[in-house]
Every structure is written in C-alpha cells, then in structure tokens.
Design goal:
This protein is mainly α. It contains 3 helices and no strands. It has one domain (about 1-49). Helix content is about 70%, strand content about 0%. The chain is elongated, with a radius of gyration of 15 Å.
Length: about 50
C-alpha cells in the first residue's frame, strides 16, 4: 500500500498529464485504516463462524 500512496516521479508526471488518473492515488492513512478495519471485521467474522 505504501508504494501506491507514494507515487514515483513518472507516476506524478502521468497524474499531471491526465488528471483522471488521480482517482487511483491513495491516501496512506485512510487506506491503512480501511484495510485494518476490513481485516479486523473478517477476522471477527471467521472467529464467530
């Protein structure tokens, strides 16, 4: 996830060339929180099954 949240110079140039690509850019903190919430929910669901 870190590599997607910290784009390379080439990817930053692509974002500038085509602003529609910025939809694929991740905010690291938000993405990490969502991933951990999903992981926790899945773990709890499996534990109760």
């Amino acid at each position: 996830m870190w590599t997607h949240a910290r784009p390379s110079p080439a990817m930053l140039a692509a974002y500038e060339a085509d602003p529609s690509l910025t939809a694929f850019r991740l905010d690291f903190v938000t993405a990490l929180q969502e991933m951990l919430a999903t992981l926790t929910a899945g773990t709890l669901a499996r534990a109760s099954a």
